[in-house]
C-alpha cells in the first residue's frame, strides 16, 4: 500500500528526530529553553534564513497556540511546507527536532492565564462544528475567529507597554499616525479618538504622495504611531525607519516581532491575526487603539471620579450651542 504524502512526511520527520536523539545528527547552536528565548533568537536570525524558513518563522511566532497544540503534519500544512522542513527548522535553532521545540511552546501555553488553553480548544471546536452554510456560516466563522483573536490580545499585551504608550501619546507635542492599505481605517479611527481628546494629531495620508515629506517634520518631542501588517506598506516602513533614525519615539502596531517595524519600535504591540478567505480581521487592532485612547483619557482626566471618557462630536456641538446661548443671555 502506498503511503500518502502527509503520512510519508510525518514518518520522515519522526525518523529524523529519532536520528537526532541517537546523536547521529548534531546541532552546534545553543538551545533556547523558553518561549521568549526562541522568539528572540528567531527574530535575530530571521534576515539570514532561507525564504522557506522565513515562512515557517512567521507562522510559528504568530501562531504559538497552534504550534503548541497541533501535530507536525497539521502545522506543516498550515505553513504550506513539508513536515521534514519543520524538523530542519527546529534543528537550525539548536533543537534535536520539532517535538523538542514544540515543548517550549507547550510550556508557554501551560503557564498562561488559567483556562486559556481550554478557551482556545473550545473555540477551535466551535469552528470545526460549524456546519452552517451560506452567509450565516460565514458570519459564524468570522465571529468565532475574532473572539479568539481578542482573547489572545488580552493575554498578550502587558500593562507596562500600554502605560508607556499612553505616556508617550499624552506628552507628545504632536502625534503622527501612519497606516495605509488595510491599516488605514485603524489609523483614521485613532486620529479621531485622539483629536476628540484635544491631542494635536497629524495623519500621514498618502494622498498627494507627500506622506514621507510630511514625516520629515517629526521631531523627538513628537510621537509616531506606525500601523502595518503583512504585506507591510513600504511607505509606512520607510517613515518608521526615518523617524527612529531621528530619535522619534515610535509606537508600532504590527503582527510579529519579525515585522520590519519591530526593530525601530519604542513600544511594540504584536497583534494576533488569523487568515481569512478575503483578508484579515481588524477586530483586535481596532480594540487595541480604542484601549490606547482610553488610557490617554485616563491620564488627562485624573481628577475625574467616573471612568475616563472620550467625548463625541455630537456632545461637543451640543456644548458649543449651550455656551453660545449662555453668552447671549
UniProtKB/TrEMBL annotation:
Keywords: DNA-binding, Transcription, Transcription regulation. SUPFAM superfamilies: Homeodomain-like, SIS domain. Residues 165-305 form the SIS domain. Residues 1-25, 310-329 are annotated as: Disordered. Residues 16-25 have a biased composition (Basic and acidic residues). Residues 318-329 have a biased composition (Basic residues). Residues 36-112 form the HTH rpiR-type domain. One of its GO terms (molecular function) is DNA binding. CDD domains: SIS_RpiR. InterPro entries: Homeodomain-like_sf, HTH_RpiR, RpiR-like, RpiR-like_SIS, SIS_dom, SIS_dom_sf, WH-like_DNA-bd_sf. It holds the Pfam family HTH_6. GO terms for biological process: carbohydrate derivative metabolic process. This is Transcriptional regulator RpiR. It comes from Acidocella aminolytica 101 = DSM 11237. The lineage of its organism: Bacteria, Pseudomonadati, Pseudomonadota, Alphaproteobacteria, Acetobacterales.
Amino acid at each position: 500500500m502506498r503511503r500518502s504524502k502527509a503520512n510519508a512526511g510525518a514518518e520522515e520527520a519522526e525518523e529524523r528526530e529519532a536520528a537526532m536523539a541517537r546523536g547521529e545528527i548534531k546541532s552546534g547552536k545553543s538551545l533556547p529553553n523558553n518561549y521568549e528565548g526562541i522568539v528572540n533568537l528567531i527574530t535575530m536570525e530571521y534576515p539570514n534564513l532561507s525564504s522557506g524558513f522565513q515562512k515557517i518563522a512567521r507562522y510559528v511566532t504568530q501562531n504559538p497556540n497552534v504550534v503548541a497544540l497541533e501535530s507536525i503534519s497539521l502545522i506543516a500544512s498550515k505553513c504550506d511546507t513539508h513536515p521534514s522542513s519543520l524538523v530542519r527548522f527546529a534543528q537550525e535553532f539548536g533543537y534535536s527536532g520539532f517535538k523538542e521545540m514544540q515543548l517550549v511552546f507547550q510550556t508557554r501555553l501551560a503557564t498562561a492565564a488559567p483556562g486559556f488553553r481550554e478557551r482556545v480548544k473550545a473555540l477551535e471546536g466551535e469552528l470545526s462544528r460549524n456546519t452552517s452554510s451560506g452567509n450565516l456560516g460565514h458570519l459564524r466563522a468570522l465571529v468565532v475567529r475574532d473572539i479568539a483573536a481578542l482573547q489572545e490580545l488580552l493575554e498578550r499585551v502587558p500593562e507596562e507597554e500600554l502605560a508607556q504608550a499612553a505616556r508617550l501619546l499624552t506628552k507628545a507635542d504632536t502625534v503622527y499616525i501612519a497606516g495605509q492599505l488595510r491599516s488605514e481605517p485603524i489609523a483614521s479611527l485613532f486620529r479621531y479618538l485622539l483629536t476628540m481628546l484635544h491631542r494635536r494629531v497629524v495623519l500621514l495620508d498618502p494622498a498627494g504622495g507627500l506622506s514621507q515629506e510630511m514625516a520629515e517634520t517629526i521631531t523627538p518631542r513628537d510621537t509616531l504611531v506606525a500601523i502595518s501588517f503583512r504585506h507591510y506598506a513600504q511607505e509606512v516602513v520607510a517613515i518608521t525607519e526615518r523617524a527612529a533614525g531621528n530619535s522619534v519615539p515610535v509606537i508600532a502596531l504590527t503582527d510579529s516581532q519579525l515585522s520590519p517595524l519591530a526593530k525601530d519600535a519604542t513600544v511594540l504591540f504584536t497583534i494576533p491575526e488569523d487568515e481569512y478567505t478575503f483578508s484579515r480581521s481588524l477586530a483586535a487592532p481596532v480594540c487595541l487603539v480604542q484601549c490606547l485612547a482610553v488610557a490617554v483619557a485616563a491620564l488627562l482626566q485624573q481628577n475625574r471620579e467616573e471612568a475616563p471618557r472620550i467625548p463625541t462630536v455630537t456632545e461637543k456641538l451640543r456644548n458649543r450651542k449651550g455656551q453660545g446661548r449662555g453668552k447671549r443671555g
